[in-house]
Write a structure and sequence with these properties.
The protein is mainly alpha-helical. Helix content is 67%, strand content 7%. The longest helix has 105 residues.
Length: 503
């Protein structure tokens, strides 16, 4: 800020603060005497302002001089420091130039030594080639060949050692995995072998069940599709049917009819209908419980109901729910151990035997299971597991192999299944006897556990056209007289042989 500007502002401020003179009368006589006093006052104020301005200017100059002196001192110090640093830097640059020159000389010396070594190496190689009768390339090739041979032998030895060790460890590891899987597959269910029977309070009830001229028993058997056996065991009525669901419906209906006491055709049909509804509800709940127990939550309601039939189905005395739970737990444990697709194994184990409870179509339980799963658009990987769990076709995935192994472990473990060999032999014998009851049959053989009957006919007594009719008649008789699980395949074979003896 300049001194003139400061002085101007101060003068303006004092001028503005000075009291303005009171207005006087406009007579020229009064104005003239007051003018010298006002002028003297203004001059005094002007002198005071100038004095103050000079005083402030002196103060500012002193302050400026002090700051300027300080700056000059600082500049002098900095200049001295820069000069010292410059001297140090110059010294370092000089040393660096000297070091660089030394490095250059050393590099030249090393290069000269390297060139000398090259010459010595060439002379040495030439002497070696002359002594060994090998060129350098030939010696190199021979050396590499020998190294390759040694490496190959060492590699083969290590591979053999690794294979032997892997075999030793694999067997032990496989045993551990299987034992662990079976341990995790243990269930709270107990394998069972059941025969449907209904207790009766007295023998008179059998008469009411039969009814007048047998109308009650005929109505009951027609409504349920189950045969009633009154004479096998006193105090109970046995229900005979390979369809476990029908047998359960018949059992519930008969128990309630006996409790009601009013056994007549109309009541029979009413109780059978109620029993069907109740069994349908039970099957759905059991199927849902089974699916949820193994971690499956997205199956259609129809499939859950079909799965619920496992509650009333046993295979060689092993309840299907028990077998399915056990197998699925084993399969899941194996799948986790070997890194297979756990969800595929889960569904494959859960559904592998679903064809066993499909009773309204003909075919093996594998074929029926495949057809059912395709109907509900299950993944092909799951269908393959079902199709291959009895090795009917070649395995296409590790998951299918695991389902097969889990099924075998669950079914083959001690105590899992009970088989009535006496009944088994009786059923096969009866099947052969029914086949032999037809005229013109020379031999009949029940094979594949009673799932197939092979009949050999006498070609002199039965013609080709009669062979077809015989197969049809035999099928009708088996369906009428025998009770059997699944299906029975009938093969009638007619073979003509001609022989002569030359003398």
């Amino acid at each position: 800020m300049s001194l003139f500007s400061s002085f101007s502002r101060r003068f303006s401020a004092k001028k503005a603060a000075a009291p303005s003179p009171k207005p006087q009368p406009s007579s020229k006589a009064k104005i003239a005497p007051a003018a010298p006093a006002l002028l003297a006052q203004a001059q005094a104020q002007a002198h005071e302002i100038i004095f103050q301005a000079k005083d402030e200017a002196l103060k500012l100059r002193e302050l400026t001089d002090r700051e300027l002196a300080s700056l000059r001192q600082e500049v002098t110090t900095k200049t001295r420091q820069i000069g010292a640093a410059e001297a140090v830097l110059n010294e370092k640059l000089r040393h660096a130039d000297e070091r660089l020159e030394e490095v250059r000389q050393l590099k030249e010396e090393i290069e000269a030594e390297r060139e000398s070594l090259r010459e010595i190496k060439k002379k040495g190689i030439a002497k070696l080639e002359k002594v060994a009768s090998f060129t350098r390339e030939e010696a190199k090739k021979e050396l590499l060949t020998q190294i390759d041979r040694e490496i190959a032998e060492e590699t083969a030895r290590r591979i053999r050692d690794a294979e032997d060790k892997a075999k030793e460890e694999a067997e032990s590891q496989a045993q551990n995995i299987l034992v662990d899987a079976m341990k995790h597959g243990a269930t709270d269910y107990v394998a069972e072998y059941t025969v449907s029977a209904v207790k009766i309070p007295d023998e008179d009830v059998k008469g009411r069940i039969i009814g007048k001229e047998g109308r009650n028993i005929r109505t009951f058997e027609r409504a349920t599709g189950v045969d009633l056996d009154m004479d096998e065991t006193p105090g109970e009525v046995r229900l005979s049917s390979f369809d476990s669901v029908r047998r359960e419906i018949a059992r519930l209906a008969l128990e309630r009819l006996i409790a009601d006491g009013r056994i007549q055709p109309s009541r029979i049909e009413e109780y059978v209908a109620k029993a069907k509804n109740e069994v349908e509800r039970i099957m759905f709940e059991e199927g849902k419980k089974l699916a949820h127990a193994v971690g499956v939550y997205s199956l259609p309601r129809e499939l859950l109901t079909i799965l619920g039939r496992f509650k009333f189905r046993s295979s060689y005395g092993q309840n299907m729910i028990s077998h399915t739970l056990e197998e699925t737990k084993i399969g899941l444990s194996l799948a986790r151990e070997v890194g297979a697709n756990v969800d595929t194994v889960r569904l494959g184990c859960l559904l592998h035997d679903i064809g066993k409870v499909v009773s309204d179509e003909e075919g093996s339980h594998v074929e029926l299971g495949i057809k059912l799963l395709k109907k509900y658009n299950l993944p092909q990987e799951v269908i393959d597991c079902v199709a291959q769990h009895h090795e009917d076709t070649a395995f296409t995935s590790n998951e299918a192999v695991l389902v097969y192994i889990a099924d075998a472990i669950s079914g083959a473990r001690p105590g899992a299944r009970y088989e009535d060999y006496e009944e088994y032999v009786k059923r096969l014998t009866k099947l052969e006897e029914v086949a032999k009851s037809f005229a013109g049959i020379s031999e009949a053989y029940a094979i594949q556990a009673g799932r197939e009957i092979r009949v050999l006919v006498n070609p002199e007594k039965i013609s080709d056209s009669e062979t077809t009719k015989l197969a049809h008649d035999l099928k009708q008789k088996i369906q009428t007289e025998l009770t059997y699980p699944g299906v029975v395949k009938i093969n009638v074979i007619r073979e003509v042989r001609a022989s002569e003896t030359a003398t």
